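re the bet — no i am not wrong, look at it urself. input seq straight from the record:
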Amino acid sequence: MMDAEYTGKDITTDVVEITDTACGSDITCVEAYSTGEADYYRFRTHAAATEHESTLDDGFRVNYFVMDFAGKDSSVNDQLFAMQVLAGMWNDYEGDFPAR
């Protein structure tokens, strides 16, 4: 079982690292990636992540990570699944997922 490979739906299609162009004085993230479903930003603190998520029209935050769905054309179901997978990385996640 431990050697089994994940065979579920791939919810991180077309991954591109964008840290150098995305993180800076405007967005104080420490790491960023773009996928077909969302742009993912990692911050040093929960407060920084919360602050950035509050500026987004269509985003989701869990712990140090923010997902920004603006400009992405993947399905709402794929984006919801991506949120659920990210939130599922932490056993302490409590809350709903935004209606999209």
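see?? The beta strands are 16-17, 31-34, 39-42, 59-62, 65-68. told u. also The chain is about 25% helix and 20% strand. so pay up
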